[in-house]
Design goal:
Blueprint: H1 12-22, E1 26-30, H2 36-43, E2 48-53, E3 66-70, H3 73-79, E4 85-91, H4 97-100, H5 104-107, E5 110-117, H6 128-134, E6 137-144, E7 149-157, H7 164-169
Parallel strand pairs: 1-2, 1-4, 2-3, 4-5
Antiparallel strand pairs: 5-7, 6-7
């Protein structure tokens, strides 16, 4: 059975924000598990999507404009070295540095990055290296809710102070 809606902690307002940011765009969901978020965003108007996950045994959802890559992120970066995307998505990233830090090369090829997760004294999503990379990009939108925060980054250099989410992210304990 697919692990659909692993991104269910997002509020309706956060989902609408993601849908608007992805409308008409070529997206990559890094850590996309079964592809449910990518497929949802396709149904909401994204042009095409690639869902990437290191777990090879997860059943994948199918859609005409949805491509899956099952394997390590280093292998994905090699296979897609010349590819770029309009939007890169990280939802509830793990804190395992040996896995997550390998997504940074793919993020560098995304015009926009959407982060969905939670960093505070009780929860950590991402690694120090990931947050050191993200905080140098332009923070365009931050929508914090009780269970999750969505951060949308553009390409330009940083002009705003760090959000609380980012400050906690920089304190990440890599596993």
């Amino acid at each position: 059975m697919p692990h659909t809606r692993y991104w269910k902690s997002a509020t309706p307002a956060q989902i609408r924000l993601m849908e608007r940011a992805c409308r008409g765009m070529n997206i990559v969901d890094l850590g996309g598990r079964d592809g449910s978020l990518a497929r949802h965003l396709l149904e909401a108007g994204a042009r095409c999507a690639t869902s990437v996950d290191h777990q090879t045994a997860v059943p994948r959802l199918r859609s005409a404009r949805l491509q899956h890559f099952a394997g390590e992120f280093d292998a994905f970066n090699t296979a897609y070295a010349q590819k770029s995307w309009d939007v890169g998505i990280l939802s509830w990233p793990v804190t395992y540095a040996n896995q997550l830090d390998a997504v940074i090369p793919a993020l560098k090829r995304c015009r926009c990055i959407i982060y969905l997760g939670r960093n505070d004294r009780l929860s950590q999503c991402g690694t120090c290296a990931l947050w050191r990379y993200l905080i140098h990009r332009q923070l365009m939108k931050c929508l914090k809710r009780k269970c999750s925060t969505i951060l949308i980054y553009g390409e330009a250099d940083r002009g705003k102070p760090l959000s609380e989410e980012e400050k906690w992210g920089l304190k990440a304990i890599n596993r």
